[in-house]
Amino acid sequence: MIEINKKKLIFNIKEIWFSDGPFDVKGCDSVLFRACKNKLDAPGFERKEFTTLITDLSQDLEKIWNNMDKSSCRYIISRAQKEGIKIKINQNYEDFYKINKQFRGGKGLKIGITGSIDFIKKYGTLLVAEFKGEIISGCLFLEDKNNIRWLLGASKRLENKEMAKLAGDANRLLIWEAIKYAKQKGIKEFDFGGYYSGEKNEEKEKINFFKKSFGGKPAVHYMYERDYSKIFGISEKIYFLLRKKDF
């Protein structure tokens, strides 16, 4: 289980990952439980469910490899290795920060707290891909003793076609190396960080295809949220109403 402390304006927010279920937390204005595996009726908490993909890391590594799609995953991972792409763990934080900021900016998205160097160093496990001395992509994960979850990824793929191909190869190698890293540590499950199941969306369906190629199985997880501050709850509702008007 991981407990993350965040600040939102004057409010103290706690995010708790990989708990079996929600429980009351003192000293915060709001608490959010993420990636819970159990569906519970918890008084005072709002529950939402979402679909993700899970790889069981208790399997032999060879079986995990063979469960991956041959052409869209295994072949590309092998190609990335032959191209000389190297994977580094918990290094080059500043390089990843810059890539993530540029990547998200190109999509009109803010970098957010989870993209900050302080957050990555304190809570995350960072894998970056290096090609000829240059960091070209990276993935950030959250982990505890039983779970590892893909939180975000970014690459230089938007620069040109050659970089897009290299980054695409590197991204598959990154996930494979993260799976190997987690299995070596005795972690039980690899969570791909969600699987889109809404209305037709070409970009999100491409991400689904990428994740599914690793052979993970669908699973339903739950999120539980409780506001202890009425002022915070009201401010959140106003924020989301204003945001909807902008789109």
Q: At the third CATH level, what is the topology name of the largest domain?
A: Aminopeptidase
| Widest beta sheet: strand line-up | 1-2-3-10-4-9-8-7-6-5
Strand content: 25-35%
> What share of residues is helical?
25-40%
Query: Cα-atom Rg, whole angstroms?
Result: 19 Å
Question: Please, what is the average pLDDT?
Answer: 91
**What count of helical segments does DSSP give?**
7
User: What are the low-pLDDT stretches, counting only 5+ consecutive residues below 50?
Assistant: none
Q: How many domains in all?
A: 2
Supply the CATH class of the largest domain: Alpha Beta
User: What is the general shape?
Assistant: globular
Classified in CATH, the superfamily of the largest domain is: Gcn5-related N-acetyltransferase (GNAT)
Protein structure class = alpha+beta
User: What is the end-to-end distance?
Assistant: 36 Å
Record field, number of beta strands: 10
Order of helices and strands: EEEEHHEHHEEEHEHEH
Tell me about the largest β-sheet: 10 strands, mixed
Can you name the CATH architecture of the largest domain?
A: 3-Layer(aba) Sandwich
Structure description:
The chain is an alpha+beta fold. It folds into two domains: 2-51 and 222-246, no CATH class; 53-216, 3-Layer(aba) Sandwich (Aminopeptidase), CATH 3.40.630. The protein contains seven helices and ten strands. Strands 1-2-3-10-4-9-8-7-6-5 form a ten-stranded mixed beta sheet. A hairpin with a 3-residue loop joins strand 7 (134-143) and strand 8 (147-155). Helix 2 (70-83) crosses helix 5 (161-184). The mean pLDDT is 91.
